[in-house]
Design goal:
Helix content is 20%, strand content 25%. It starts with a helix and ends with a strand. It contains five helices and 20 strands. It has a five-stranded mixed β-sheet, with no helix packed on it. A four-stranded mixed β-sheet has the order 1-3-4-2, with helices on both faces. It has a four-stranded antiparallel β-sheet with strand order 8-7-10-11, with no helix packed on it. It is globular. It has 434 residues and is α+β, with helices and mostly antiparallel strands.
């Protein structure tokens, strides 16, 4: 082959490789910038108000990406950058996507800020100079965050969605400084109901196997990070009437701060779901399902279950121990759970058993991230939901001897088809739906 032809082919291959790699390089750059933006927001919150770092949330990221892409689809940046398709506002879009509310639709902890500029420093400087944006960033109600960073002819469009969920208190680790950052519930809507923890007074730490690492101690925003001998731990929060549990995966639930942003995992990335698929907004659960544990509480009130990070190829996840069993939708989309049955050797639970008057939402379009749970009627109070469950939508009770999942092998079935065979000793069992 002539030398000139070899050179030409080499040049074409190099050019084609550059074209193929360009989107990946661009995606890596925007992901890195999203990390940088969250770290800058967290540093600002910590330095100015002593507020906990915000934890990236996939659903909030989806909301941020979807709105940013909508804004960039318009001929020009609109005067109100927060108005979305059909005139929707951030709270409207969050409710439509299934973000939990505090009892009533208007009681939803969601905020949004945006800016177009060359870099993260420019965006932070603008928000710091704006009273309304400053108040949003410093709002102590928020614990989670989603970020979109998309290219624009003036640099980038930065769009941030802040949020908080009832009874979901976050915690994050700084393995370099050996610190554990705790959060708290400060959303005013949580103070208007007895079923949500508001202003934690005490915390307790457990290792990944549920063994206590501390006694109950007064809540404070930062604790020394204990040596757990594994890759995760649990933080139990409580006040006079409520308790909740947070899982901390030490290899992924890292506090995103400027000094650690280079070593931090990427923030969740999310392609916007189809706008035609929506999930019903959660509604308030009756007090009978969220009755507080009696006081004084026994030291064994929390029995944490180690739960894996959901796999994007998995549709449902069963999380169970000797006391309870939960089914979690981890598919990233609404699912119809009504045809499913959890079947033991002599007993079974059809998912339609959770179709009670107290079900929040619909089993036929069950939101991603949420769960249903079952435990024995002999329990003296509500058991904690799995850390992988965003919102527990229904609870049923069975006789103690009917906890077949704790006694041997059982299966998740779709009609006569076995989707997964589970063992009582596994603790988790995943399945894909056809």
């Amino acid at each position: 082959m002539p030398h000139r032809l070899i050179l030409l082919l080499s040049a074409l291959l190099l050019a084609w490789t550059a074209v193929l790699l360009a989107p990946a390089v661009s995606a890596q750059a925007t992901t890195s910038m999203a990390n940088e933006l969250i770290a800058a927001l967290n540093a600002w919150r910590l330095e100015e108000e002593g507020l906990w770092p915000l934890k990236p949330n996939p659903l909030l990221t989806t909301l941020a990406v979807r709105q940013a892409q909508y804004v960039l689809s318009l001929p020009e940046i609109p005067d109100d950058i927060h108005v979305g398709p059909g005139g929707s506002l951030p709270q409207d879009r969050a409710r439509a996507a299934g973000w939990p509310v505090y009892g009533r639709p208007e009681q939803i902890a969601i905020g949004e800020i945006a800016q177009v500029g060359p870099d993260v420093d420019d965006a932070i400087a603008y928000w710091q100079s704006s009273d309304v944006h400053h108040r949003t960033v410093m709002n102590p109600a928020y614990r989670e965050v989603g970020v979109a960073v998309l290219p624009h002819r003036y640099g980038h469009l930065f769009l941030v969605v802040f949020g908080a969920r009832p009874n979901v208190l976050t915690a994050s680790a700084d393995s370099v400084r050996r610190q554990l950052y705790l959060s708290d519930e400060r959303f005013p809507g949580a103070a208007r109901g007895t079923e949500w923890l508001f202003r934690a007074s005490e915390v307790r730490l457990f290792d990944g196997e549920g063994r206590p690492l501390s006694d109950w101690i007064p809540w404070r925003p930062v604790l020394p990070l204990p040596d757990v001998g594994g890759n995760h731990l649990f933080v139990a929060y409580r006040n006079a009437t409520q308790e909740t549990l947070a899982a901390v995966h030490l290899d992924s639930d890292l506090a995103l701060l400027p000094a650690a942003v280079a070593a931090a995992p990427p923030v969740p990335t999310a392609a916007p779901p189809s706008p035609t698929v929506t999930a019903p907004a959660p509604t308030r659960q009756p007090a009978a399902l969220v009755a507080p544990s009696p006081t004084p509480r026994p030291s064994t009130v929390f029995v944490p279950v180690a739960t894996p990070t959901p796999n994007s190829l998995t549709d449902v996840l069963l999380v169970y121990d000797g006391r309870s069993l939960a089914l979690v939708n981890v598919s990233g989309k609404p699912l119809d759970l009504t045809p499913l049955t959890i079947a033991g050797e002599a007993q079974s639970l059809a998912l339609t058993r959770w179709q009670t008057p107290w079900l929040s939402g619909s089993l036929e379009a069950f939101p991603s991230g949420d769960c249903v749970q079952v435990w024995a009627w002999t329990e003296t109070g509500d058991l904690p939901q799995p850390g992988v469950c965003r919102f527990r939508r229904s609870v049923i009770n069975v006789a103690p001897e009917a906890r077949f999942w704790a006694a041997g092998a059982f299966a998740l079935r779709l009609g006569d088809a076995v989707l997964a065979t589970c063992s009582s000793g596994m603790g988790t069992c995943a399945a894909d739906l056809p």
